[in-house]
Fold:
Amino acid sequence: MAIAEMSKLRLIGLTDERNGIMNALAKTGCAEIKECALPENTAFKPDEAELGKFNEKFEKVESCIARLSNAVEVYARDNKRECDFLGNGFDVDYGDFMSIAQKEQELLAFCDEAERTFEKVSDERNEIVRLNARAKSLAPFSCVKESFSQFENTKYAAIYFGTIPADRLEAFKEYADSTSAVDYEEWEPQGNAVAVMLAAHKTVADEAFAAISALGFQRAPFSGEFTARQLLDECDREIKNYEKTIAETEEAIFESGKNLKELKILSDYYAFEIEKLQDAERFPQTASSFMLEAYVPKEAQEKVSAALSAESDYVYFEYEGISDDEMPPSLIKNNKVVRNFEFVTDMYTPPNYREFDPNAVMSVFFSIFMGFIMADIGYGLLMMIGGFLFAAKQKKDTALKRLASVLAIGGICAIIFGVLLNSFFGVQLSFLSWAPLSDINATVMLGGGAIKDLPLLLLLALLMGVVQLTVSNLCRAYAEFREGRIWDGIFFGVVWAIFLIGLIMIILGMTEEFGMSYLTVPGAITAVAALFVGAVTAGMHEKGFGKVTKGFGAVYGIINYFSDILSYSRLYGLMLSGVIIAQIVSENALKMFASGSVALILLGVIIMIIGHAFNLFMGLLSAYIHDARLQYIEFFSRFYTGEGERFAPLGSKHNYVADVI
Structure:
């Protein structure tokens, strides 16, 4: 639970062996290339053509992966087929990862063929759309037995054959009946359109066409020795042929999904090659040699040395310590549980190399606070089971996986607080009647009087806040001790932690329910003594009158402490709102269950599911946001600097592969 100590690798090698040496460093997974001071005219200039070639191939493979993955997923879902080659986050042997280059031409040829196949399917789908549109246009003429060629103009008459809106048919007929120089025929309406034919003597042809056009007449866009039914049947045959071809092609595409794993390895391989070319710009190079610098964890020096020695007999390298003006990347070493909470800290800022990792301490408070906010056995079980199941299904160590684990751990604390509060989806359980927090009132003695009916849970939330602020001051002391500033650690950290411990003793002593009244006086003495020492030593680094003003400032700063402590009341407010909503949902649903009506029972089930799902979602959202806020603002502000960069060794940046081993 610390940040690994780094060393700096200096390496000189032959330019011809640069690629192999970088591969050896990448294989160890323990070297992050460092920016070097570049003497004039020695910077490596990557071949733009080579870099462009890798980028072009990378984009081609990425496009194929995206289209193939989508096609396979859709086909598997629509046809209820099992599919086990869509997942990411798999491990790959280093030899298999590097040897994927041997299958490059085969896989690129597959990408080209897949692209042609996708385009073919797209064209065939467009043809189906076109044929459906043609069939829709032909539909109004489906009951016309004559071919379209039968409706051509004659020597003395103009023939208008087409469609008219069904609701304008009567107007059409009225016009035709009122004009002696025209004749017409109508067919059965097909939907909103009806096929009609109007024959008009050429002397009135223009007038007749204008009249029926005003009624919405549209000429038939077809001609030839075919009837509409024949053309419709032809459309139907072509559509079926295209659909059959598409189905066969999609089946073949689905089967070709087995290539996805190798394509993803190839994509990550290209990304690695691009990374090497770009990293090589960061160190000097001549025609025959190059110099490289990298950050390497001290614990990995032997591993890196062995890999370099095995790669080349003509490479010189050495390790040196980190200078005071350098800020190496941070390699955080935590156990599996605490590692999940690095996600929370990184959202604020990762720890820098020269400070201690706060995740181990923060994770405890984050989990307790989240559990206190949710404080329900049922919600805790859902958080724990759902979080762990979701995390277990994620093969790759992503931020989403870590978040799920954080929520699951918070769920364990929610179960504990749910037992203490006696709440199971807002319902009190008879066998938990002993729950110590089920009676939520407390009495605080103030001098000769008392504040009665103060929510005990509110007091508990404030106490947790005081405890965390105490720990934050101890963390401040530890940070100062690490830097050799012993007196700063004592007077700016330990003393104020003692002040807060005295405050905790006062609160416990003044609250009747805790039965610790004997702590009040010792707590007051402790707090006052610590405050006095803190005020006197606040200006220890100041000169003259600054020592006095700093002392007054320290005393005045107590207001900030009380303001920070009150911030923790949000824990109680969020917990109370969630509990009340859960109670309302469950009480109303239980009344419906007790009614005996099937309809009301079903309605009660729906209310339980929707109500508790909404309450759980909103509770988790609020719990995470406000919990994180307390860590960032109240806890970290006293000792944590952050602004570090995560250790990212060469070859570790993969889109699909979890790890190259």
